Amino acid sequence: MFETIRVTGGRARLLERHVQRLAEGAQRLAIPLDIDELRTELLQFCQALGQGVAKLIVTRGTGQRGYALPQPCRPQRLLLGSLLPAYPAQHAECGIRLFPCDTRLAEQPRLAGVKHLNRLEQVLARAEWQDPAFAEGLMRDMSGRVIEGVFSNLFLITEGHLRTASLSRCGVAGVMRAEIMARAAGLALPVSECDISYSELLQADEVFVCNSLYGIWPVTGLAERVWSVGPLTRKLQTVVADLLSDS
User: Fold this and answer.
1) pLDDT value at residue 71
2) Do the strands 206-211 and 76-82 form a parallel or antiparallel pair, or are they unpaired?
């Protein structure tokens, strides 16, 4: 498993959501983790890093040839620090276009939501376009349902209702996705996780993508569909702005 954490002012943003996702993933993959120890390591590492991106990789550890789980299991952790990505400011201000990827996400409910290290589907999807006019790609499952971006989660807004894809079959349960749903509920904005068809996406009033490094990017184009940056997307950008500040 891995986590990619935004660090500003020596603080790990959305730390508890990252830790919770790790704990849930470790339980599902039967990897024994001392979550309190891991949290302490992250806090110390991020304080020393100051500003940038902390990437935590957790593996089951070494074992013999074959698929049997190693006994005893001695998990290994690797922490890496890097600079924050220099995303263009216009992505958040003016919106982005999505590339409709042909690569589909395989359906495996036992892994759905987990941010595991097998990202081959995302690698193949990202290789589909080189045109800088597209900042992100749209990924669907084998049945054509809208799931997420290549490196983001996706929301649509229809008649004031915020919707995001169900991740019961595949996809990554992003920490910014969870935070947006929680904060939207606090604003009395209706929120639901559900199956979303491609046609429903195209009929939405507003669309945006999100992740823990850049926050929210409005979507202004997909195939022949064009959107304006809508008022609820702008409001939600303001609501999560504190997670992107340097203070």
Assistant:
1) 87
2) unpaired
